[in-house]
Design goal:
Low-confidence stretches: none
Mean pLDDT: 91
Radius of gyration: 11 Å
Number of strands: 0
Order of helices and strands: HHHH
Helix content: 55-70%
Strand content: under 5%
Length: 68
């Protein structure tokens, strides 16, 4: 999908934490709160921090997947 294409184009590595956030984001329709993404991602990866969620959402916006 567009997320993978973006990562490859930017030469970015993905992490399991980041993927969990992206999954939660893509499953949610419409605008999603960072806190909701955080709690979703933490179900799989309890150590995920808000900063990681924030950075990942920024990447999704840059990739044109998220509206800011």
């Amino acid at each position: 999908g567009p997320w993978r294409t973006y990562l490859q184009r930017k030469g970015l590595k993905t992490t399991q934490q980041r993927e969990a956030i992206v999954d939660a984001f893509l499953r949610s329709s419409g605008h999603v709160a960072l806190e909701d993404l955080l709690s979703s991602a933490r179900r799989k990866h309890p150590g995920v921090g808000l900063a990681t969620v924030y950075r990942t959402v920024k990447l999704l916006e840059e990739a044109g997947i998220a509206e800011n």
